[in-house]
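Justification of resources, computational component.

The compute hours requested in this renewal are based largely on the per-chain cost of generating structure records like the one below. Each record pairs the submitted sequence with a full structure-token output. That output is archived, and it is also reused by downstream analysis tasks.
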Amino acid sequence: MEYTLITLLNGVSYGLLLFMLSSGLTLIFSMMGVLNFAHASFYMLGAYIAYAISLKLGFWVGLFVAPILVGGVGALVERFGLRTVHRHGHVAELLFTFGLAYVIVEMVQVIWGRLTVPYAVPAEMDGPLFTLFTTTFPAYRGFMMLVALLMLLSIYLVLKRTRIGLVIQAALTHPESVEALGHNVPRVFMMVFGGGAALAGLAGVIGGNAFVTEPAMAAAVGSIIFVVVVIGGLGSLVGALFASLLIGVLQTFAVSMDYSALSVLKLFGVTVQSTSLSYDVLKLTIAQVAPILPYMFLVLVLVFRPKGLMGARET
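The structure output for this chain reads:
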């Protein structure tokens, strides 16, 4: 029971961090139809900017300022980059964001170097939140979960309860009508892209010190973000939340399981010789194959439900 509950909490906290990352990408795609390959780079940028701010002004200032700065960078990217290449089609947009990801990585390495930076968890949260039997749950992981839930609530309130949210939703399906009513649709697009980048930056502020802040951190999460978005359904925030939690819990449980197909076969009295061609595959443990489980799940979803678990938009 202790192992199950603690692992479940760790999985949920990791899943909510994935949602913080994927929610911005989902908003950008649902609004603009752009799959932003540089999205994970904004996550990295948020972590590094928060680190730089925390050295001078502390973690809490960085928590609020870094996402705003990253959002501003995202808005400038949309205004002077994506908007220009948009008329050339989706391939040009993908190539632009793909190149932008490398530019951001190189800029980070020039400014902060190639090594890991000491972006640490704030001292007031560097301890246990509670103890379950003999295992402690870190206070900072609880903080991560709280921030993710507050972010989810904020997105819902903005999209459903505010005027700008109504304009954003209307511009998604009827941009010409919205523009005819006097709203500046290109500016709305810029705000959405900047907002999506800010959400990725917030995830970087929270996740950078919980895991590691280094130039390779964008590549480490970049592919898993797209897995989450596709499994949940392109353009579906609810789907992104569900897929994030599912993958977070799945991977967290998987990495701690030392079972293999070989051990299961032994339970049924089946013995596989070490000289057998299948022996090397059968002896692989769940923990060893844990990194590829989300991608295997992605393949299954694409085969049996191409739109994703809760997708509604045609790509």
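Residues 2-304 form a domain with the ABC transporter involved in vitamin B12 uptake, BtuC fold (CATH 1.10.3470). The longest helix spans residues 2-32.
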